[in-house]
Write a structure and sequence with these properties.
Blueprint: E1 2-3, H1 9-34, H2 39-67, E2 79-80, H3 96-119, H4 124-151, H5 154-186, H6 188-198, H7 201-226, H8 237-254, H9 264-289, H10 294-317
Parallel strand pairs: 1-2
């Protein structure tokens, strides 16, 4: 890697051209990712990509006037300390707030970099070049704000925000809640049955750990194989499966960990307290995101939890 201060005027201009090309591709990728669910925001990023293309055209014209037709390949990662951009496929989840903040940050970083670079040179032509690039990025930043205002009035933005919330519930909350409920409720019976049957905390812990991990693996694969998401819009199957599997395991391990306490009576008391907290959390999530009435959510979850808990005690005490 080379230092930016070591680059010639020709190399600086070539670097600016490749940077504008990269930013234009990023904006185009974002537009394609958002086009189905957020068409208005996708249009904004298509327009921003066109702006980057115009900047690139102006830079190439200036380069041709000064240095001819051949443009050396110099990219961001070739220059030490230059701003870097992550490809869109590495940015997940790609929500509205994420891409809007990303666009603002991209323009701000580029502007700051050009201005800082211009302040470190005494060559008049280089200073003018970098200053012009900085002003172009400032203009683009304002253009981005203008495009947002023109294409995303409050009603459209609210509608897309509601769509984003629904997709978040569909792709994250629902599989996570299903896993949490299964892990918290289904593992109650084997854990407490083992505790009451053996009278040893470690035995209950081993049973609970095995049940939690096994249930997590089973639920994860079941969710991933149930729907590819192409018609329902529920997102990538393996992503949902991973969310479901992890939350299932966490739901079971939560009330399993207290059985690391050697005294079984104390471990049971702490585990019961953890179960109550888990059931309250599940009820709150159902009320918050699934629009289930709070009383109904609490009664349904508590009833199921009590029945499974009682089953475990009866079997373990028999």
């Amino acid at each position: 890697m080379r230092d930016f201060s070591d680059l010639t005027e020709r190399e600086i201009l070539a670097l600016a051209i490749s940077s504008e090309e990269d930013d234009g591709r990023i904006y185009t990728d974002i537009a394609e990712e958002l086009r189905t669910d957020y068409p208005a925001t996708a249009h904004v990023f298509t327009e921003m990509a066109a702006e980057e293309g115009e900047h690139r055209r102006r830079l190439i014209e200036l380069y041709q006037q000064k240095f001819g037709e051949h443009i050396p390949l110099i990219r961001r990662h070739d220059v030490r300390g230059f701003i870097s951009r992550r490809p869109v496929w590495q940015i997940r989840p790609l929500g509205l707030d994420t891409v809007r903040k990303l666009a603002q940050l991209m323009e701000l970083e580029t502007t700051r970099f050009y201005r800082r670079a211009a302040s470190r040179t005494s060559d008049a032509s280089i200073r003018k070049l970098l200053g012009d690039l900085a002003e172009a990025e400032v203009a683009h930043e304002h253009a981005a704000d203008r495009l947002m205002a023109e294409n995303l009035p409050s009603a459209v933005r609210e509608a897309e925000d509601q769509t984003a919330r629904r997709l978040f519930v569909l792709r994250v909350i629902q599989p996570g809640l299903a896993g949490l409920m299964d892990g918290s409720v289904s593992t109650l019976a084997p854990v407490f049955a083992a505790a009451f049957a053996t009278g040893r905390s470690w035995d209950a812990f081993a049973v609970g750990l095995a049940a939690s991990i096994g249930a997590g693996i089973s639920m994860g694969f079941a969710e991933a194989l149930s729907d590819d998401g192409s018609l329902t819009g529920r997102g990538a199957p393996w992503g949902r499966g991973a969310i479901t599997g992890v939350m299932t395991g966490l739901g079971g391990i939560g009330h399993t960990l207290p059985f690391l306490i050697p005294t079984v009576r104390t471990a049971i008391a702490v585990a019961i307290a953890v179960v109550v907290v888990e059931l309250i959390a599940i009820s709150w999530i159902r009320w918050k995101y699934m629009e289930t009435p709070p009383v109904s959510a609490a009664l349904q979850v508590l009833l199921g939890g009590v029945l499974v808990f009682a089953t475990g005690i009866l079997i373990g005490s028999s």
